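Homework-ish question, so no full write-ups if that breaks the rules, but can someone show me the predicted structure for this set?
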Amino acid sequence: MTKLLEWVFGVSLLGAAWACVTFDLLRVSIPPAYREVAWPMPLYLLVSFGCYSLATVGYRVATFNDCDDAAKELRGQIIEAKEDLRKKGFKF
Amino acid sequence: MATSRQAAGSRGDGDKYSVLLPTFNERENLPLIVWLLVKFFGESGYDYEIIVIDDGSPDGTLQVAEQLQGIYGEDKILLRPRAKKLGLGTAYIHGIKHATGNYIFIMDADLSHHPKFIPEFIEKQKEGDYDLVSGTRYQGDGGVYGWDLRRKLISRGANFVSQVLLRPGASDLTGSFRLYKRAVLEGLIECCVSKGYVFQMEMIVRARQLHYSIGEVPISFVDRVYGESKLGGNEIVSFLKGLLTLFATT
Ligand SMILES: Nc1nc2c(ncn2[C@@H]2O[C@H](COP(=O)(O)OP(=O)(O)OP(=O)(O)O)[C@@H](O)[C@H]2O)c(=O)[nH]1
Ligand SMILES: [Mg+2]
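A: Not a homework solution, just the prediction itself:
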C-alpha cells in the first residue's frame, strides 16, 4: 500500500467515525451533548496539528546545532593537508 | 594513535570499503578530501579504495585526481571518469561497477562530509549488521555550519513534511553521506529514478520499503568552502514534486 493510500484509508476511517457520532448514523441515540462535542472535532484536530507542526519545526530550528568547532577543525586540517601534499610533490 | 597506525590496512576481517567520490569542478576540494580519507582510513586501519568519478569537469579536476593517484597509488585511488556531466545517480552506478569492496561509502567531494566520521559509520554498521548507515544532521551531536536562519528553516520544514508524509524511519532523508552493503546499494540504485536531493530521499524511502535495516550516525555538515553548488534555484519546487511523487508511489 502506498503512503498516499494509507493516508486516504486513515482519513476516511476517522471521517466515518466522526460522521457516525455527529449524525448518529447508526441510530444508537447518542446523547446530544456528545454529538455537540464531536461536531467541531476535525477543526480542532487540524488546528492542533498545525500548532504542533509549527512548534516542532520552530524548536528544531532553534536547537539546530552550529558546528563551529567542526568548521575550525576543518580549516586547520586544510592547512595541514596542503602542506603535506606539497611535500609529497603535489602541485596545486 | 601509534598502535592503530601500525594496524593500517591490516584489520583482518576481510572487509573492504569502496568510497565513491563523484566530482564536478572540485579541483580545490578533491586533494583535501582524498588526503583526509587517507588519513582517517589509515588511522583506523580498515581496507579501502577511493573511486573518483569525474564528469569531464572543465576546471581540470581529473588532472588533480591523476596527480593524487601518482602519490597514493593506483590501488588506493581509482579513476573512472566520464566524458560529460551525466548526473549523480548514474555516476554512482558507474562507480559501483568498478568497486571491489563489499561495502560502499557514498559522500560528496566538497568537504561538507568529513572523513573523520567514517570509523563511526563502520562501527555502527557492525554493531547492528545494518544494511545501510546514514549520516544525520538532525540528531545527537549532528548539525550544520554556515547556514543562516532561512536555510535552517527550509531544511527543518522540508524534513518535517517529509517525515509526516513518508515515515521513512530515518531522520535525515536528503543527506548523502551513507554506507551501504554493496548488494543493497546495487539493488536500490536500480530502482531509484529521482534527481537531485530527491534521489537521496528516494534511496532511503525505498530501503525502508524493501525492509532493509537502517542505522544512523550524527554528522556535522560544514558548507562547502571552495567551488560552487551544482543544485539550481528551483530546488524547492523540484523537492516538493519529488516528495509528492514518492508519497503517491511508495
Ligand atoms: N560525477 C558527477 N558529480 C557531480 C555531479 N553533480 C554534482 N556532483 C558532485 O556531487 C557532490 C554533491 O554536489 P554538490 O554540488 O555539493 O551538491 P550539494 O551538496 O547538494 O550542494 P551544496 O550545498 O553546494 O554543497 C559533489 O562532490 C559534486 O562535485 C555530476 O553531474 N556528475
Ligand atoms: Mg555539497
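Now go work out the reasoning yourself. Hint: The mean pLDDT of chain B is 91.
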